[in-house]
Write a structure and sequence with these properties.
CATH class: Alpha Beta
Largest sheet: 5 strands, parallel
Helix content: 25-40%
Structural class: alpha/beta
Length: about 170
């Protein structure tokens, strides 16, 4: 992550978004402080990994202590509207020392309500739509991408051993 931050800075990034929890659901303070230090002078936003932290109030204090500029949160709920009361409590706790950014299910039909219920002055929204493309062959059963798992903590990574085996078999 430190190399990624250095690269982003060298390419003109205006800020860094990251997040680091340990296996116990607490902020990985040492790692986070190193990330914030590497990012300077760019602001760091802690992403929605915050929502998986076991103690949001304690975690917010750790983010403030580490020098994080913003935290993106749904208040530990599926959507910011569902987590509005917790987000509101975080805004009060922050007292301007860190920006609380409401995110998760923010849409044009609920953004005013989220702002009113939480007291945030920043929101994050993904406003997109699935767009169908023209098939190269009508009725084709070929899939070019696979479904992602429902487990939010899962991600795909390269299996280096299998890749080496594949290359050995290919040459």
């Amino acid at each position: 992550m430190l190399r990624d931050i250095a690269l982003a800075k060298s390419q003109g990034a205006q800020g860094i978004v990251s997040g680091a929890l340990d296996g116990n659901g607490t902020i990985d303070g040492d790692n986070l402080r190193a990330l914030v230090k590497e990012a300077k002078p760019l602001p760091v936003t802690f992403h929605r990994a915050f929502d998986f932290a076991l103690n949001h109030a304690e975690s917010l204090d750790q983010l403030i202590e580490a020098g994080v500029a913003r935290v993106l949160t749904s208040g530990g709920a599926n959507t910011a509207l569902e987590g509005a009361s917790r987000i509101s409590a975080l805004v009060r706790q922050a007292r301007g020392r860190i920006r609380i950014v409401a995110g998760g299910g923010i849409r044009d039909n609920n953004v005013r309500e989220v702002i009113a219920l939480t007291g945030v002055d920043e929101v994050h929204a993904r406003i997109g739509a699935i767009v169908g493309g023209a098939s190269l062959r009508h009725g084709a059963k070929i899939k070019l991408r696979k479904r992602l798992p429902d487990d939010e903590s899962a991600w795909e990574k390269l299996d280096e051993g299998r890749m080496r085996d594949l290359v050995r078999q290919a040459v």
